[in-house]
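Section 3.1: Structural characterization of target chains.
Under the original work plan, the team committed to producing a structural model for every single-chain target entering the pipeline before any wet-lab resources were allocated. The record below documents one such target. The sequence was received from the expression subgroup and is listed exactly as submitted; it comprises 308 residues.
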Amino acid sequence: MNAIGKANDMPRRQFVALSGALGAGALLTGAGGRAAAATGTGPGAGAAACCPCPTDPNPPGGGQSPCPPNHMQGLCGSPADTDPLWQDVQYCTQGIVPPSGQRPNCLKTTQNYVVLHGRPQNQHNYLLVPSCRITGIECPFLVTSGVANYWHEAWENARSGGDVPVQYPYIGLGINSQSARRLNQLHVHMAGIRDSTQARLQALEASGRIAPQPAVWGDAQYQAPVTGTQGSGDRTYRILRLDSLTENLFELLYVHVVRRFSLDMAGQTLIVVPKAPQTGPTRTFYVLNSDSSLHDGTNTCDHLLVYT
């Protein structure tokens, strides 16, 4: 889904100050666009008012506290907020019917996230949305060791054989920046990408234009134009290769790009493209980042992901 909107930016110094208080891991911003959930059946209504966050003693890919602490509600959102996508999450996890009366189709509900349809609704446009109140990439909790690994979970659902597979020749995952999203609950788009995008990334890797490790992700030699959806033209991305999605991508982005170049985390977009075709247990992932500080950069993942 292509979600364009505007949210209030948090001054970078405020983000850094809070992150410093939380420790080295707590610095970031971001978000994706919301695909409005389609009407469907879900849990029954009548649940009590929101909300402690759901907890899981062993969240996948995260630590022991997968929701932001109460003192971070000013930056990460309050459970009492009325964002429509957050209301959809509360319906799936607690049975609280949204004020609109429209019940989303809860494709999968876990302790850490729910999976919903994107808009337009089809078999290659889904959203993975945290069950915690997290407005977007600007929430500093996302770079801490306690956060669940939403990227890994998105891939495990979207891949062939996953619970909510993206039925498209090639798969892409993405989130939008704070300014390029319409709804303020963190969500990872699970969608398709064009054949030409996959081919371009493999060609860049073959020519040594993709960063082999996070420490050099922001180097100029690993910035390259990639053509996305038809008519969108080339956009410049910083491109990294990873052999798994076990690391916290938000923290890698903050430490090796945002902090290194004194950028604003809220202005970043982040896209993951699994290299294909591959067989066996090992898989390579291309991790693309861009923002408006780059020449021909972008703050949205919508140029690369195919929703329609």
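Strands lie at 108-109, 113-117, 125-130, 171-175, 188-193, 223-227, 234-242, 269-274, 285-290, 305-306.
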